[in-house]
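Budget justification aside, the reviewers requested a transparent look at the raw inputs and outputs of the sequence design task funded under Objective 1. We therefore reproduce one unedited record. The lines immediately below are the C-alpha cells for a 272-residue chain.
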C-alpha cells in the first residue's frame, strides 16, 4: 500500500505538501503528490503532509486528516497572554496532601507527548511514581547514593551540597522530593541519540501544562542524578533495560499561590 494517498478531486496541486516534507520525499507528478518507490523508508511519520494540506486531500497510512485534532486559532494565546503564561510558571515546592486523579495525569502526559523530538523518533517513555509511600522508599536509595558520593566523590558532593541535603533529610526535611504526592520520570533508550534531549523537552512541556490543571511541579534534580547513576535505585525503579531516567518532576496541587513574577537576568543576545 502506498504511504500516501491523494484524493484528486480535492487536491488543488499547490505543492505545499512537497515543500513542507522535512525529508523531501514527496514529488509532484502532473501536480499531484506522490512518493517515489523506496523513498518511503525515509519518511519520519511527522504528519506534516496531512496537517498542511488546505483541502484535506492527502492521507498517510498512519493518519488521515480526520484523525488529526483541529487547530482552533481562537484558543491560541496572543503575545501578551504567551508572555504571562511562560513567565508566570514557578517551581512549586509545597504541595497539598492530595492525590491527583490518574486520568488527569494521563491527560497531561498525553499533551506533553506532543513535544518535538529529533527525527520525530518520539523516544520518551513516562514512569509515574504514583504512591507517596513508594516514593519515600525510593528516597532512601537517593540518600544512600548521596552518602556514597560524599565518601567517594567528595569534591562533587560538596559542589552539590549533598551533606546538607542528607542532614536535612535525616532531620525530617524532604529537600529531595519536597513531599510531592507524585513523581514523574521521563526515560528513554540510551542507544537512541534523541532520547536525552527529547526527555528534557517533554518534561518542560509537562511543567508548562500543569498550571492549566491547577497543578504545579518542580524538576527533581537530586532524585534524577541518583536515578541515572545509582544501581539500587535503578533496580527499584525497574525501568526497561537500556533505558535511562533523563529527568524527573514533582507534581501535585500547590499549597500556595504566587502573586507576582520575579525578574530574571536580561537575555544575553548577540547578532541582533
Ligand atoms: C534540571 C533542573 C533540576 C532541578 N532540580 C531541582 C531540585 O532537585 N530541587 C529543587 O527544589 N529545585 C530544582 N530545580 C528548580 C530550580 O531551582 C528552579 O527552576 C530555579 O530556582 C528557578 O525558579 P523557577 O523555576 O521558579 O523560575 C531544578 C531545575 C532544573 C531545570
Amino acid at each position: 500500500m502506498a504511504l500516501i494517498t491523494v484524493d484528486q478531486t480535492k487536491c488543488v496541486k499547490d505543492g505545499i505538501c512537497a515543500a513542507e516534507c522535512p525529508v523531501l520525499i514527496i514529488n509532484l507528478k502532473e501536480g499531484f503528490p506522490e512518493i517515489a518507490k523506496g523513498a518511503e523508508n525515509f519518511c519520519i511519520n511527522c504528519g506534516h503532509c496531512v496537517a498542511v494540506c488546505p483541502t484535506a486531500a492527502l492521507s498517510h497510512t498512519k493518519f488521515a486528516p480526520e484523525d488529526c485534532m483541529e487547530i482552533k486559532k481562537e484558543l491560541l494565546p496572543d503575545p501578551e497572554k504567551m508572555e504571562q503564561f511562560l513567565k508566570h510558571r514557578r517551581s512549586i515546592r509545597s504541595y497539598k496532601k492530595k492525590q491527583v486523579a490518574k486520568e488527569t495525569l494521563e491527560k497531561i502526559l498525553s499533551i506533553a507527548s506532543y513535544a518535538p523530538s529529533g527525527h520525530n523518533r518520539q523516544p520518551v517513555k513516562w514512569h509515574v511514581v504514583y504512591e507517596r509511600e513508594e516514593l519515600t522508599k525510593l528516597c532512601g536509595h537517593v540518600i544512600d547514593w548521596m552518602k556514597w558520593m560524599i565518601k567517594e566523590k567528595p569534591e562533587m558532593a560538596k559542589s552539590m551540597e549533598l551533606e546538607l541535603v542528607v542532614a536535612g533529610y535525616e532531620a525530617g526535611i524532604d529537600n529531595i522530593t519536597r513531599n510531592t504526592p507524585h513523581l514523574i520520570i521521563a526515560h528513554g533508550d540510551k542507544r537512541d541519540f534523541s532520547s536525552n534531549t527529547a526527555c528534557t523537552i517533554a518534561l518542560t512541556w509537562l511543567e508548562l501544562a500543569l498550571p492549566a490543571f491547577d497543578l504545579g511541579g518542580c524538576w527533581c534534580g537530586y532524585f534524577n542524578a541518583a536515578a541515572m547513576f545509582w544501581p539500587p535505585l535503578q533496580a527499584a525503579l525497574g525501568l526497561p533495560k537500556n533505558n535511562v531516567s533523563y529527568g524527573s518532576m514533582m507534581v501535585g496541587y500547590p499549597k500556595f499561590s504566587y502573586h507576582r513574577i520575579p525578574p530574571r537576568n536580561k537575555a544575553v543576545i548577540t547578532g541582533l
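The two ends are 49 Å apart (CA to CA). The first strand starts at residue 4 and ends at 6. Computational costs for records of this kind are itemized in the attached budget.
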